[in-house]
Amino acid sequence: MKKNYFFIIVIMIIAILAIFYSAVKWAKISSNVKAFIHIESIAFQLEIENEKQKLLISNLEIKNNYDLIVSHTHELNKVADELISSIEDTKEPTLLQLLEELKLKRVVLEDIYKDIKTTNIQIKDSLQWLSNFYQQHLDQKNNPQLFSYIFHILDKSKENQISTIQPYNINSHDPSYDQLKKHLQTLYVASEKLILLKEKLQKNDISTDTGKLTHYLDSSLTEFRKEGMFIVSVLLLSVLFLIFFGMIVYIKEIRLTLSAASLKNELQRFVDALNQSAIVSKSDLEGNITYVNKKFCEISGYTQEELIGKNHNIIRHPDTPSEIFKELWDTIESKKTFKTTIKNLTKDGGYYYVDSVILPLLDLNNEIVEYLAVRYDVTELVKTRDAAILAEKAKGEFLSNMSHELRTPLNAINGFSTILQRELSDEKHLAYIKSILDSSDNLIGLIGDILDLSKLQSGKFVLDYHHFNIQKKMQQFIVRFDAQLKLLELNIVLNIDETTDVTVSGDWLRISQIITNLISNALKFTPMGGEIELRCHYEDGVLKIIVKDNGIGISSEVQSKIFQPFEQADTSTTRKYGGTGLGLSIVFNLVEQMDGEITLDSQEGKGSEFSVKIPLKEVKGSHNDLADDEQTDTREKLHGHLLIAEDNKTNQMLIGIIVEEFGLTYTMANDGVEAVDLFAKERFDLVLMDENMPNMNGTQAVKKIHDLYGTDVPIVALTANVMSGDKEKFLEAGMDAYVAKPIDEGELYKVLKSFLDTKA
Description:
By secondary structure, the chain is of the alpha/beta class. The relative contact order is 0.05.
């Protein structure tokens, strides 16, 4: 049935298109016929006018009515202009081509007619002068032959036969005859010229062109009539088809009406079923409620009588943005289904959340008659989600505070230990200091791992892409493990092949973090005398890194969870080898962030092999970013006076020692308020600003300094706030640079040197 109906619709569409095409074609043919008939009538008129002109020219010897020829030329031109305009309006190629030939001859004829007019004027002027001369000298008998000649000319002119004038030579030197000679010569030349112009007129006769034009028009009109008859036939046939299949569609429409009524009953049954489990309502086109089910009343607190006839805004909660309702109406009025979660208002002022599906109900003409809303109570789900969001926020704040509070004392431990390491020479004391530094570094690494994992899991982790040479970076990087390998009496086999001698775009810091965690894992679980292998290969835009050891290995049941945070083989692993179980989880997440993949091949007691593939795009023709990150031991002394804002007394002492070693002087402020006051009293070359301080924090102090003094003195954030976005927040607040705690002396020196001069 559906196929037949589709076939009928297609036939009807074809018939309608045929009618439309026939109507358009008929209109075009009618327009062309009208235009061609009009052109043909003008062409016939032009041909008649041309024949008149030819008749005048053929009587030239008899009447010499040159003025009549010139006068008739205006009428001929008028008809010709009308013909040209009509043909150009049609833009019909063949007509335009025939018109071009006619226009060319017309240009020539216009020049000939102008010459006839000019010549005619000359003849009239000369005849008038000759007549006057004859009358004045009629009594003179000294040259009877000349006067006989003049009389002959004047006599012929009365018969309009000037073209028969013969030349006459006057043998007189009388000056009074000079003018006579001139006019006789003019008459002779003019008569000869008229003969030539007559020949030209006959040569450029447009009768041939008007004949071609009328012949083409006749044949075209014949074709138009034939085509018109065909179009009429198609039009009649299409109308008959349309009437026939229209009747079929009408009959089917009756059947569809009956079917629609049945479907409507089914829909009503469906709505009744919904009433048992969902919050259901209907509303009219203005949003006024026309139906609510029992569940709607239960959750809203209203009765049916209180809701029917009221606008749906009665349950609109003020917390819900108006944009949602605008989008709702735009969607359902365009006959689409709208879905969203909405906060609604109860009668007693409470609230509830519902997942809403609102759709228009259409009649047989596909017009909206009312709207149906089906909702499900999701209040508890939303509350659970909001609680999770608050928990995530609390977790972030906790991690931020924990990071700050741990890094602040670690800054002092690391800083003073580094200073003591430079001052002491006793091997035993140096060993103690080294143990302190190692423990401090492990603790900093643990804090970094926790923060990195938090950022990775929350989706706030951002990769920093730059250009670097893989081979050189790997060669510089692996040196940092020499001391550990020597201490643990382990051997490392390097296979960084030549394919890695390429410049790529990627985040080297995070790639090195991946390799560090994998090698640290191998170092931890490989017994003394064992071997670790590091292989690197680059091919087809992918860097492949393999870290293999012959350590204790990992059992198959543990391998499935080894990349989860805080997971190790068993609790004895933690007791024996240490660690938090975060390293491999961070590796897995970093590789995933880089669209890479990591695999593990391990057998218990036979070692492990981690294989990492990271896509890195090769950069052609780029300078390698090969700057050595290692700081130099020799630093130039800096010149300048600093304002240091730091509330922790231990850190005050440490920062003071470090900047003095750089050759700088300083004034110490205990909080933001003191820093603002001191800035007005002394001249400073740079400000080191802590963030977490009593009375006024660093960000507030920077704003106050800029507002009060409008200074361009550089301000550097020196803070333990290292969570994601902290650096950007400080720079946006007006600080010029950022150094994290614990302080890396090399990093601090590099930042200070970028703003301060060195001492001569």
